[in-house]
Amino acid sequence: MHPEAIFISASLDGHPLPWVHMGARLTSITGIVDYRAGRYTIRPLSPPTVTWVPPDRTEVALPTLHVAPMNAAGCEAIAVASYNAYKMTDEHGAHGMAIHVVKYLHNPAIVFLQEVAPAAKPQNNFGNIATTLDRLCQDIFKISQVLYRWAIVDDIDPSHEARLTPRNAYIYNPKTVKLVEPTRGRATPMKPTWPEKVKGRDEYALTNNPGYVEPHQVSPIFRKPLAALFETVSTKTRLWVINVHLQSKRGTGSLYSDLRPPRDPRLRLRVQQMNLVAGFVKEIQKKAGAEANIILAGDFNEWKGAQSVFDPLNGLLLDAAVVTGMDPTEQYTLLHESSALGLDHMFISPSLASPSAGFEFEVLHVNTWSTLLAGRVSDHDPIMGRYQTCRQPGVVTNKQPPGVQPPPDVPMSRDTEVEGVSKIQVDSPSLSKQQVENQWQVMGPRRRRPPKKGRY
């Protein structure tokens, strides 16, 4: 943060100010200093001149973390990323996000997405969130030939506001990970998502996978933590994930105001949300064991100095940036009022922080370093982690014969279920007719007939 920052307003001679971005240097300014709207400003007699701008460093942000193939010891690297998509729709932001997922994130196994908005022209109660995610998965496939699926909660809240509100979602590579015991999680009415023992087996799954941790308390529809349980295809190890987007800082006072600390009317709600998430994590560790692999990530809308928000995680999860020894000056993910703020975080369980997991963590400054607004997909930078997972003794993998494409692990309907199959799968000429028909089947007792000839 830079509490001593001063803002440059319009020049007195009427000439426009130069375009600048992070790191630019200006000539000295002579003008009138004022204090208004909670911050210091200077109105120059004439616009300053830009003397130096840093080069576009987004290429430097290319990560070293990516999904690595299984080695001879039966271990592979699983990459997980979190990205605030900034109200992404099918017509605005989806294509740019696809480019970032491929070019900068290197097609991670799982991507936590926040602020995924309905399609530009919503047509049904589902709000066409599926249309936005379909477009994202299609564009990723066109760029990289990697086919992603998406997972969200099927929201049947009939209110207009709920249907048009951005929310959390996952996209994942089904060749690397799959959902465990996927179910239909509904927002209204719905019981809270909770780990419970699978009948007849000595293991635990989620009551709704994916599902909201707290569907009715504290949060509006688009601020609800979204939990899911994945399993790696090759090593059969499980990963519990929680995608959070805490209450915004709307209404928070300026960093430069007289009030110390600045007023923050929504801090109380963020603390309540974190208490609920901490309780959920504690329940996972209680039932699935202390060795359970857990990743909590997303847009927390809070920097780590706010102890009241992050204290509930003490003794449960560890900060990935601290575990990996990341430089604190590089942990920012957002630029706001001349300050570089770290609002996006990733917390991991002790099992992932162990030396055997070899956890790695990066913040990719692909937006804050961009010299052009057109090159920015979001106002947030993505964060990314990677860990090693190894095949357990006695585990038999479901490898397919060479040249045979495995069918979808859980075929589900795109418009009513929690797990999505991108339309690009239907359009892809590489899939057989039988595989296309399999993708249109619906899990459970309800069955949907395959589409008639010509529908796809």
The shape is globular
Our count of helices gives 9
* Arithmetic mean of pLDDT: 80
Spatial extent as radius of gyration: 23 Å
Helix content: 10-25%
User: What summary fits the major beta sheet?
Assistant: 7 strands, mixed
Give the termini separation. 53 Å
Overall structural class, as computed from helix and strand content, comes to alpha+beta
What ranges have pLDDT less than 50 throughout 5 or more consecutive residues? 396-418, 421-456
Structural write-up:
This protein has about 450 residues and is α+β, with helices and mostly antiparallel strands. Helices cover about 15% and strands about 25% of the residues. It contains 9 helices and 23 strands. It has helices spanning about 95-105, 130-145, 160-165, 265-290, 305-310, 320-325, 350-355, 425, 435-440, and strands spanning about 5-10, 25, 30-35, 40-45, 50, 75-90, 110-115, 150, 165-170, 175-180, 195, 205, 210, 225-230, 240-245, 295-300, 320, 335, 340, 345-350, 360-365, 385-390, 420. A 7-stranded mixed beta sheet has the order 21-22-6-7-9-8-23. Strands 10, 13, 14, 15, 16, 17 and 20 form a 7-stranded mixed beta sheet that branches. A hairpin with a 5-residue loop joins strand 14 and strand 15. Helix 1 (about 95-105) crosses helix 2. It is globular and about 80 Å long.
Helix/strand layout:
Elements: E1 7-8, E2 25-26, E3 31-36, E4 39-44, E5 50-52, E6 75-88, H1 94-103, E7 110-116, H2 129-144, E8 149-151, H3 160-163, E9 167-172, E10 177-179, E11 195-197, E12 204-206, E13 211-212, E14 226-232, E15 238-245, H4 267-288, E16 294-299, H5 307-310, E17 318-319, H6 320-323, E18 334-336, E19 339-341, E20 344-348, H7 350-353, E21 360-363, E22 383-390, E23 419-421, H8 423-427, H9 433-439
Parallel strand pairs: 1-4, 6-7, 15-16
Antiparallel strand pairs: 2-5, 3-4, 6-22, 7-9, 8-9, 8-23, 10-14, 11-12, 13-14, 14-15, 16-20, 17-20, 18-19, 21-22
